[in-house]
């Protein structure tokens, strides 16, 4: 397994195999890529693009893909996945970021959710395709990923939502199609509470069965604006990591705003000596590998 830090700030905490920087999160704000970090880009979720071009927003019968539309689990504004100017600009941007970092990890590289998009352009493209609605959406997403693959010369990791059953119906995402273009997958398992670890283990097992490329998962530690009362405890994070590790995943990333919160988590994890010893009984080689990795933090925490 490989272990990575996943940060909003261009900072690296010691004790990880690699570091992933959110160079363009869903806010649309862009950071300068760092040569020795991997780069995460949110493609269609882009508040800045929608603010500058309100008519680019993805449309549905239940309203636009806009932050605040409670019909969907949308916490930002999402551009229509067929918007030609945005698609072209993002391809150039992705290629440039790839040149200036260790590789590209994409998210939001698909339709906003079920029922999207029904803008006039999408309706026209769908009708001309001769395909069913779901097959047309799948083709649009897959064809765009093929274009991305042509631009990315280093590692390309495609992030997907933690839905192993209806990702095609919701987002136009077919896992086998994505596997033709991705070097690996990243299943985003963000939650502010991991008190029910069997649920996340179940998802990890499902994705490990379905995906034909290496599987990373991303866990939530501390986001922008959070306080300690609102985020997962170190005990929860250690337990859910062990439970997912024994499902056969290939790596884990931990999301924080800055390196300092990663370091706080490392210190708290190191202090959980009794829990870590108890977790040794949870499985074989993958569990021991993960716990040995955490034990290594004893050398880096102050």
What does this structure look like?
This protein is of the alpha/beta class and 302 residues long. It is 39% helix and 16% strand. It has eleven helices and eight strands. The protein has an eight-stranded parallel β-barrel, surrounded by four helices. Helix 8 (234-245) links the parallel strand 7 and strand 8. The longest helix has 19 residues, at 133-151. It is globular. 42% of the residues are buried.
Q: Nutshell version of this structure?
A:
By secondary structure, the protein is of the alpha/beta class. It contains 11 helices and 8 strands. The chain starts with a strand and ends in a 7-residue tail after the last helix.
Q: How many distinct domains?
A: 1
The level-1 CATH class: Alpha Beta
- Helix/sheet category: alpha/beta
- Poorly predicted ranges: none
| Global mean pLDDT | 97
Q: What name is given to the CATH topology?
A: TIM Barrel
Keywords:
alpha/beta, TIM Barrel, 11 helices, globular
Fold blueprint:
Elements: E1 2-7, E2 18-24, E3 38-42, H1 47-52, H2 84-99, E4 103-107, H3 120-129, H4 133-151, E5 155-160, H5 167-171, H6 175-179, E6 184-189, H7 197-210, E7 215-222, H8 234-245, E8 251-256, H9 259-271, H10 273-279, H11 285-295
Parallel strand pairs: 1-2, 1-8, 2-3, 3-4, 4-5, 5-6, 6-7, 7-8
Helix pairs in contact: 2-4, 7-8, 8-11
